[in-house]
Specification:
The structure is a single chain. By secondary structure, the chain is α+β, with helices and mostly antiparallel strands. The chain is about 35% helix and about 35% strand. Pfam families: Acetyltransf_3.
């Protein structure tokens, strides 16, 4: 196979490269399903104990990007190390809204990989898919996600008080949004961050 040249590749920036999730990525999913607190923050619930079979089925269902209304990606360093996964989901073509879910491996959090991957997918959603608004719902206490959304120029639009029940109590759900106009106004600002 010829060497792949990435210098004009849309799906990467100076920190990460996105690729299709593959069936072989089940091990990454399985390993990261043991990080119960990260999954609680991401999915607002406690997951049952992970199984190899479930991770294999999940990876098979989202391989090659698509599963229903979801486009799944693996997030890699430029050296090819898988550091996370991400999916563009809840795409509503009629109203132009969408969401993005991201999980970064605990060993790689806080290094900008999630933010860098978000920049690529936001650009795709706004500039290629003609979507108009990114909507995010974040469980209170998910400081990494809140910080990332602020860096990306998202605005806090509200708080749904005591809206999510997990870990023995009700938690607030913090709502963030970013419109295409806001994205376009802040694109230079976001690219520098």
């Amino acid at each position: 196979m010829r060497e792949i040249l990435y210098n004009n590749y849309y799906w990467q920036n100076d920190l990460v490269r996105l690729r299709a999730w593959s069936e072989e990525d089940w091990e990454w999913d399985y390993y990261n399903n043991f990080d119960s607190e990260a999954l609680r923050l991401a999915d607002c619930e406690l997951h049952l104990p992970p199984t190899i079979t479930a991770s294999q089925k999940f990876s098979s269902s989202i391989k090659d990007f698509c599963n229903d209304n979801r486009i799944g990606f693996a997030i890699e360093t430029l050296d090819g190390i898988t550091v996370g996964n991400m999916n563009l989901n809840s795409i509503d073509e009629r109203n132009g809204t969408f969401e993005i879910a991201t999980l970064i491996d605990r060993e790689y959090r806080g290094r900008g990989y999630g933010t860098s991957a978000m920049k690529i997918v936001l650009k795709y959603a706004f500039m290629e898919r003609r979507l108009n608004k990114y909507c995010a719902s974040i469980l209170e206490g998910n400081l990494g996600s809140i910080t990332m959304h602020k860096k990306l120029g998202c605005e806090q639009e509200g708080v749904c008080k005591q809206n999510i029940y997990t870990n023995g109590r009700y938690h607030d759900e913090i709502l963030f949004g970013l419109t295409k106009d806001m994205y376009s106004e802040n694109i230079n600002f976001c690219e520098k961050r």
